[in-house]
Amino acid sequence: MKSDKFTRFMYQKEVTWKGTLVQTFPDFLVVDAGDSYNGVNWLNIESNSTEMLPYTFVVETRNLEGESLDLNLERGDSITVKGQIH
């Protein structure tokens, strides 16, 4: 259940965020927006580096037709993403 504040201020709003690519998956990317990314993968963040979780977000990478985008990115790349929060 989404909170009223989330719905009023974030849901379906357009955002631009910058961060470091943690890992790519067929339909999404995991990005770290903190200041101390150390090269770990998503599984390691989830299980061993939980202090990074508040700074980590997932970016869906499908186009409007629902097809996965072919992105040429590698772990550790600095990226900027723009889109809507759902």
CATH topology: OB fold (Dihydrolipoamide Acetyltransferase, E2P)
Helical stretch tally: 2
Order of helices and strands: HEEHEE
Report, as a whole number of angstroms, the end-to-end distance. 12 Å
- How are strands sequenced across the largest beta sheet? 3-2-1-4
How many beta-strand elements? 4
Biggest β-sheet: count, sense, barrel? 4 strands, antiparallel
Please write the CATH class name: Mainly Beta
Tell me the count of domains: 1
Strand proportion: 25-35%
Overall pLDDT, averaged?
A: 90
Approximate shape = globular
Q: What is the alpha-carbon Rg in Å?
A: 14 Å
**Percent helix range:** 10-25%
Descriptive account of the structure:
Helices cover 14% and strands 33% of the residues. It is built from two helices and four strands; from the N terminus they run H-E-E-H-E-E. It has a four-stranded antiparallel beta sheet with strand order 3-2-1-4, with no helix packed on it. Strand 1 (14-24) and strand 2 (28-32) form a beta hairpin. By secondary structure, the chain is of the alpha+beta class. The chain is globular. The protein has one domain: OB fold (Dihydrolipoamide Acetyltransferase, E2P) (Beta Barrel).
What keywords describe this structure?
single chain, 86 residues, alpha+beta, OB fold (Dihydrolipoamide Acetyltransferase, E2P), 14% helix
Lay out the secondary structure:
Elements: H1 4-9, E1 14-24, E2 28-32, H2 42-47, E3 56-60, E4 78-84
Antiparallel strand pairs: 1-2, 1-4, 2-3
